Amino acid sequence: MANSSRAPGRSRRVRTAFAVSAAVGLLATAAAVVLPGSASAASTLGASAAERGRYFGTAVAVNRLNDSAYTSILNREFNQVTAENEMKIDALQPQQGQFNYGTADRLVQHARSQGMLVRGHTLAWHSQQPDWMRNMSGPTLRNAMLNHVTQVATHFRGQIEWWDVVNEAFEDGSSGARRDSNLQRTGDDWIEAAFRAARQADPNADLCYNDYNIDNWNDAKTQAVYRMVQDFKSRGVPIDCVGLQSHFTGGSNYPSNYRTTLSSFAALGVDVHITELDIRNAPSDAYRNVVNDCLAVARCKGITVWGIRDSDSWRSNESPLLFNGSGQKKPAYDAVLAALNNGTPPPTGDPTTPPPTGNPTTPPPGGGCTATVTPGQVWGDRYNTSVTVSGASTWSVVVEITPPQRISATWSGNPTWDSSGNVMTMRSNGSGNTFGFTTMMNGNSSARPQIRSCTAG
Ligand code: G3I
User: Fold this and answer.
1) By C-alpha distance, which of 395, 390, 411 is closest to 226?
2) How far apart, in whole angstroms, are the C-alpha atoms of residue 111 and residue 52?
3) CB–CB of 313/270 below 8 Å?
4) Which of the chain's termini has less CB crowding within 10 Å, N or C?
5) Which 3 state secondary structure label does DSSP give 220?
6) Ligand 1 centroid to residue 439 C-alpha, Å
7) What is the pLDDT of residue 27?
8) Residue 88 C-alpha to ligand 1 middle, in angstroms?
9) Closest Cα to atom 1, ligand 1: which residue?
């Protein structure tokens, strides 16, 4: 989250930590149930996620807050909310210059009364524009968009943890291009202009780019968003996070390289959020995988499901959520809660500079490249390592770790593993010549990874 344009002297990290602990406190008093055989296992999604330094949230339709069955699940299980529709442009500014905050304010008040964090969704989007904006173009539209960003972010200042500043600005398919829209036609820089306006209006909110179909690391759309974020970070455009909507519905599936996508974005220096999760027919395995992938990436801050009960879903015919229409927990709920409870707590204390333990390893010559290890941050239970390759622009590097140590996250490369799980082959993925990984110590704090080979090509 380090960003030079952040208001000096104000730490959002502190506020986030406070808000999460406030939510934990509320949830703990509301739902402190001890599970048999696991005295410390949390019994709700939000409480368990918070123990791991994460949130577990849901999209909320404000008119459903009058439904007590809905609201009791919301208040019991979740510590973060996103307005499903009520903070979209057509909802907040139905006529130009006339802002209608009443419904959205109701959600924010409800969330605050329950200690829940609020994600603002969304300041600039090609869709759900009111008629007056849909018919605009050029500088008039650009100014109207920026005014909307400024007014709305100012109205909610201090109440929103993360803003989806721009939503869905890239095209699907193999082009890797920006989506054509009236906003895009105002000039390529409309996205960064929106981010700068949002930062100015609410310097303490984290600012996210949010999109769907950016879950598979190999997809052109994922790579295009990655390059935009990389470019923004290199030029100081104020971006703090990327939201992966992760709608695994309507024919889109959970990809096996999802963790690589999360860790690759994170390695750019942004947080990652899973913002609109739903999975066709709610298979326990895929839900469990998503949770495990998020927990494996330190910068994955939390998961939001796109609705509470199947009957609340925008895709209710696919029954993609964690509760059925009667509000009962589905098997996927149990899988998610168990995965959260099995996750390791976040690292505590400040990262320290690692003592050099043994010589950084270099591979035997002959592979056409050299891999140099740089030890990274060390926490109580894990440590980071980065490896820089010289002598080749495409390469594969074989890294071996000592069990019971285990690599839990990687970034900036495409990893594959041998059957033991102790030998990782990392291949270049076009994102540069340095890759990295996090290793869980699992009781062995002294061993360090060994480079076995570096092969060009
Ligand atoms: O409230 C009106 C109602 O008065 C009217 O009778 C009815 C008939 O058209 O429409 C109702 O509004 C609908 C609204 O949902 C509330 O149900 C809109 O037409 C409909 O377009 C809107 O759909 C929403 C969609 O975004 C478009 O904004 C979905 O609920 C919402 O789940 C969906 O959410 C999006 C995220 O914002 C971005 N990512 C994808 C995700 C799924 O499409």
Assistant:
1) 411
2) 21
3) no
4) C
5) helix
6) 43
7) 40
8) 10
9) 85
CA distances for 301 relative to 253, 346, 409, angstroms? 22, 11, 15
Q: Catalytic: which of 77, 168, 171, 192?
A: 168
**Which residues are CB-contacts of 199 (< 8 A; sequence separation ≥ 6)?**
5, 207, 238
pLDDT score at 378:
76
Q: Tokens standing for 275?
A: 């913002």
Q: Which residue, by CA, sits nearest to atom 16 of ligand 1?
A: 85
Report pTM: 0.75
Other beta carbons less than 10 A from residue 260's beta carbon: 24
Is 77 part of the annotated catalytic residue set? Answer: no
Walking along the chain (457 residues) 10 residues at a time, the average pLDDT comes out as 33 41 40 36 96 97 98 98 98 98 98 97 98 98 98 98 98 97 98 98 98 98 98 98 98 97 97 98 98 97 98 98 98 98 69 38 65 81 86 93 83 82 90 84 86 90
* Phi, psi angles (nearest 5°) of residue 112: -65, -35
Q: How far is CA 263 from CA 23, 312, 403, in A?
A: 26, 31, 22
Amino acid at 338: A
What HEC string does 379-401 produce? CCCEEEEEEEEECCCCEEEEEEC
Q: Per residue in 403-427, is it b (16+ CB within 10 Å) or e — as a string?
A: eebebbbbbbbbbeeeeeebebbbe
Q: Measure 423 CA to ligand 1 centroid, in angstroms.
A: 47
d(CA 4, CA 442) in angstroms, rounded, equals 36
